[in-house]
Amino acid sequence: MKFLRDLSLLVVLILPILSIVYIYQYEEEGGKYNWPLIVRESNNSYEVEMNYQLMSPLDVPEKFTILDILILKSGFESELLTFDDLVNIPDSRWRSDFDRRVELVYPQAYNTTEVISALLNGQPIPEKPINGPRVRFVQISEEVCHPEKPLSHKYDIVVVVKSGVSQFKERQEFRRLNKAFTNLQGESLMGLRIGLVFSIGLPRSQQNNMFKRGKYQLRLNTSGGQFLNPKSLDQATAQFEEERKIYKDLIVGDYEDTYFNLTMKTFHSFVWASTFCRKNRPMILFLDEDVPVSLKYLVRVLRSQRREKRNNLLHGVLVRRGRVFRFEKGPSIPKWNVLKSEVPWPFYSDYVMGFLVISSYSNIERLALGMFFTKQFPIEDAYIGLVAAKLNIPVRHSRELLDWKFIITKQKHHLRTLNSKIFK
User: Fold this and answer.
1) Which positions ≥6 away from 403 have C-beta within 8 Å?
2) What average pLDDT does the structure give for the chain?
3) Are strands 356-359 and 314-316 parallel, antiparallel or unpaired?
4) Which domains does the chain possess?
5) CA angle 384, 390, 395 (to 5 degrees)
6) Which of 49, 65, 289, 340 has its Cα between 20 and 30 A from that of 197?
7) By C-alpha distance, which of 160, 200, 114 is closest to 373?
8) What is the pLDDT of residues 73-111, one digit of tens each?
């Protein structure tokens, strides 16, 4: 083995199989520690794997439960309920003011903050991560946060656009709008450097827009479903392969890029940012491709914030007590419906809508690790809210930072754009 160490990264070159291992570091009071997500590179693809050890069975704590009186309208018997018990309780039996500590019972039902602390300090954890220890990237950006390119780590803000694999024209328009102030060739804005990447998955192998959600079959006619047909998928695949060769700003996860995999896209995006961008620890702005923000306005706002506030960001359009939609009874919007086995309670944790989320790096780190230990469901913004709740990270409204009248760029563009009043 050959070893190369600098201030932030340990690189291990394993011969003769030509696999490179990157071990990142983080600092806390008292010293430096290895970041628990290790990167293995082989043939230009990257696998991020969690390094952990398990507790002795005798040391594993009991999983969280909740007393029935704290969540039920009536019929309680002072029993402690597990997650499986919650799944079988109809929404109609839940108190409207049910105790939000029920979120701690969501799998994995251990103290997620303590699990992450143990990981960061090299101590054993109770159980392997429910979402598996590995995340694979078919491709990562060469211009932003690349382990072999020092200049790609100079950014103060990294913009991650969550893009559908078929949305090539939208990515092109984003590139055109922001070229002057992003990535290696862009100028700084008020002294801040900005990186821009697009987070996408792979074209769907099943060439139709039918999805199975539990026992239900669903046809998706919008939100990318209109492109899930043989002709459009063949075109998207060919265009995607060409785009990968030309542009160096793609983060390509090893998952199928569909609406119902938005949580998977979010997971990959957080893992990428928390691991590959460690050297400069930038603020991260997640955007949908129909939110062309004004970078000049964004930078002006962030420059005006005290360091303490910039280090504690998790802001967007705040939703409180968002209704959970069902396939069975009650309010239903098919593409937003979730199963009782996915979300057993009738109202989500507070969350910020996924089309714009701005976060400090310290929250990106904790959320990324928390996602390994939090069972996934398809509503990605509500999922982030649940992980944040389990970690006791407050979510805040973007109006604390941003004036809705100035968020969207005034440049001429061809993007389908959200009405900026949604930020009010």
Assistant:
1) none
2) 93
3) antiparallel
4) 64-107 (no CATH), 139-423 (3.90.550)
5) 50
6) 49
7) 114
8) 998 899 999 999 999 999 999 999 999 999 999 999 999
